[in-house]
Please model this.
Amino acid sequence: MEHWETIAGIYFLGINLLGFLSMGIDKKRAKDGEWRISERSLFFVALLGGSLGSILGMQVFRHKTKHRSFRLGMPLILAVQLILLGILLGLSGKRTERTDFVMATVMTQVLYGPDGKELADEDYQIVSELERDYLSWRSGQSSVTEINTALSRGEAVALDARERQWLEDGLALCRDSKGALDITIHPVIALWGIETDTPQVPKKEEIQQALTHTGYDRLTISEDGILTGRNDSSIDYGALGKGIACDELRSRFANRNLTGAVISIGGTILVYGRKPGGGDWQIGIRDPRGTSGSLLGTLKLREPAVVSTSGDYERYFEEDGIRYHHIFNPDTGYPADSGLISVTVVSEKGIVSDGLSTACLVAGYRESLPLLEQYQADAIFVTENREVYVTEGLKDRFSLTAEAYRYMNEEE
Model:
């Protein structure tokens, strides 16, 4: 979109400069008694978009014509072009909102452009099909279900191009985070049952047994895209899926009649294009110890950016006064206990922001900093003591508004 806006801006300046100079050249030729530019040609330049420059040229060079239609025609052309421009800008700024439930969470779309309703319908279908056909282990027809079934039989699996890219990116995040993210953690998640109506604290022996069926390093992708693993391996896209969905949506936006968008899928938010009226997009970051509508602060962003937040407040249960949440430490099999209660990561890629937000919550603040630097990402960390740490790239873009929290400098 910005590419075409640049071209349009250059064209507008050029055609109006031509209109302005044409008036000056015509005036000079008239003064010198030379052949003049035809009024038809001057009108043609104005009709092509140079009416403003032509009118300015008429005033600056004191250009006069014998025909009344010329003096009235130029302002009329400009008026018509301004009306058309206003209509186009109004259509481009048309706002469409839609809310759905998909990927076990709420999906909210705010789209700007004349075809917002149709595009919002299409976005929902894209994410729904992505979940059903590829990412959800709950879906009996998804490719990840077929992959896990094949792995359980000890069979190798041929991956299509998208699956291969997702798994290569996911396994790279697992390796680079030293296992703080592990896309094979599902046996542990299933044991705790936090995503069900009957969560429980398993016995230590059960947790240790479940851990024997995990380990991202058991999966291998060959150069020709063949996935192999131990026959007890399984893949869970839970920590990557919403980011993958945002990447899939953005990859299609360039060919759409869309000027800007903010799309939220659970704790992952995609910003695209230009905000109507200019300026930065403003994203609210949730207060991890507040109600669902309360904010920790606001974040100013420009595209390309995907924001992902992971926290211990999203899904949890309490037993004997202890909060057990849904983000697990792959080393221990217990919910992560790094001293963090929320991590928000900003990256150009959704799969990176989604995966890193989980990895950083598990790894802890200090251990996460080299990982963020490696992926050229930034983050906002919230500790259990209600301290807020912000990496360098976001310090001028994040505003802490919740009074119960304290903004911490690196030196502290």
Remarks:
- The radius of gyration is 29 Å.
